[in-house]
Please model this.
Amino acid sequence: MLTQFEHFAITEMMGQPDSPPRANGTLCFGSDWERTSFGIALALAKEGYFEWDDFRNELITSIRAWEDEHPSDYSSWNYYEQFVTALESAVVKTNLLTASELREFFTLSDQTSQ
Amino acid sequence: MSERFKYRGDREAHSAARVRALEALLIKKGIITDRTVDTVLEFFETKMGPFNGAKIVARAWIDPAFKERLVADTSKAIAELDLPDGMAGAEGEHMRAVANTPGVHNLIICTLCSCYPWPVLGLPPYWYKDPTFRSRAAREPRAVLAEFGLPISEDVEVKVWDSSAQIRWFVVPERPAGTEGLSETDLEALVTPEAMMGVAVAKAA
Model:
């Protein structure tokens, strides 16, 4: 009967370069923004705004770019920073949002957090 | 405070602001709502995950007849419990439980692919799909278990169960000694995914 999209989407990532961090059988979020970014990406793919595989390609690209810039020191690694980069890229490429809207809202959001 | 911590704090704030901007814009455009993230993640947090396996194992510990039924016909026995529907779904329906005994220790692996009893164990750890783990666990399970901090005595038989598209195995670990007075809920907390994979045993808290 059901193969839930959520299940399919995560299973595809297991053992691949973009496997999300997990602990004790569950997804492991270090903070609320990590959880939110994951939920947004999954929800947009589930609703068909973009293909999960296309998003994952963005994610793998952004992970590889980070690794190329940090060839020996992984101490500053954060999976979800790459995840957010990939998500921003995916929403812009699929014309859901524009880069300038994102910049504008980021500035607002950054100011309110100061 | 050191520079390193300051840097870390800025990065956190920066990332948080990026995600707030994304979410706010998507909500403003009506693409998602403020409930979307919770709804999609609820699947992992309340429907499918190791907490289901923990409930199954805790019931088997307090009810030996249930444990027998669980090993004999896993899907049917799981259906007796009040668990989410997916347990008997596309993947759950092929699940089979194997019970540890004083003379037998069970270990589950998947040598071929990503088969994993997801609905009861949640997401696999990174090493589960590692080719080295898979091949060594099949070839020399005792050595691998010892490296996991679980040396198995020579008089205990080690059985390795290889999951496939047809059957996904999970282990019912033995109930730890000294837990006689615990409630079913307290027992659930002692069941870890590792114990249900057979790379650990359940321990009293």
Observations:
- Strands of chain B lie at 95-99, 104-109, 157-162, 168-172.
- The mean pLDDT of chain B is 88.
- Chain B touches chain A through 51 residues (CB under 8 Å).
- Chain B has ten helices and four strands.
